[in-house]
Automatic annotation (TrEMBL):
This is Class I SAM-dependent methyltransferase. It comes from the Bacteria. One of its GO terms (biological process) is methylation. Signal peptide: none annotated. Gene3D superfamilies: Vaccinia Virus protein VP39. Residues 99-149 form the Methyltransferase type domain.
Length: 259
């Protein structure tokens, strides 16, 4: 990294300060050139979604890469002349579809309205009770036989990295460095590398397979239908292909089919 690009005000050991910096980055990412309202709620029907070519929802995504997906996030998008509001679906820059929503509230979709739901590195950002309520809503909006794919940092991988002192922490530090770009190097101390997954990035709860099965069961999913998958491997390749390479070293991939 070029010395002049390093932001010396960046402090890896200050969770609150880093949270504010991440919020600034998010605002920049939420900018777009144009927004066109294409549907209004307050609750979107299966017919409305089908007319837009939507078959599924990607949470925590300003612009989903799925050709028939609907991106969603708590943060709204903003163009030079408009801004998103909850309760409407927008076409972003003439291509992808987006709706602003809060996963802590009932989802604005009718029962059985989508075939798939994808959420990459979202569930760790919300408290456990909110996660259960959100997953209950996800189950409601999935059509019979629909697929949910969740990815999240794997607590087991971090525990193993700390106890075995293998090269996971060193390799992950390099990945984070490349992803953020302007930050100084992450501290290499094992205790820091273990703690940061709990306290940085706005994380609220970290999961392993057992904990994911727990919240899915509380939301009404059948535990026998839960499957641990690998990176970009799943029941639907088009959904599994949404997995991001930058996160695959630390991630657990879980799918469940409802009905």
């Amino acid at each position: 990294m070029a010395e002049e690009r390093v932001d010396r005000s960046w402090n890896w050991e200050d969770p609150a300060g880093l949270g504010r910096r991440m919020d600034e980055f998010t605002v920049d990412l939420a900018r777009c050139d144009s927004l066109e309202t294409v549907a209004t709620g307050p609750k979107f029907t299966r017919r409305q979604l089908a007319d837009l070519g939507v078959t599924g929802i990607e949470f925590a995504a300003f612009r989903t890469a799925h050709p028939s997906g609907l991106g969603t996030d708590l943060v709204g998008l903003q163009s030079p002349h408009a801004a998103t509001e909850p309760g409407s679906i927008y076409r972003v820059d003439g291509s992808s579809l987006y709706t602003q929503l809060d996963v802590a509230e009932p989802l604005p979709f009718e029962d059985g309205s989508v075939e798939w739901v994808y959420a990459e590195h979202l569930i760790e950002h919300i408290p456990l009770p909110v996660a259960v309520d959100w997953l209950t809503e996800v189950r409601r909006v999935l059509a019979p036989g629909g697929l949910l794919r969740i990815t999240t940092p794997d607590l087991r991988r971090y525990v193993e990295g700390y106890l075995s002192q293998d090269k996971f922490f060193a390799k992950h530090r390099r990945r984070v460095q490349l992803a953020i770009g302007i930050a100084p190097p992450m501290p290499a101390r094992p205790a820091f590398m273990f703690n940061q997954i709990f306290y940085l990035y706005g994380h609220r709860w970290i999961y392993d397979e057992t904990e994911l099965r727990h919240v899915l069961a509380r939301a009404g999913f059948d535990d026998d239908a839960v499957r641990v998958r690998a990176y970009r491997d799943g029941a639907r390749q088009d959904v599994a292909d949404l997995d991001q390479t930058i996160r695959n070293d630390e991630t657990i991939y879980v799918e469940v089919s409802d009905g």
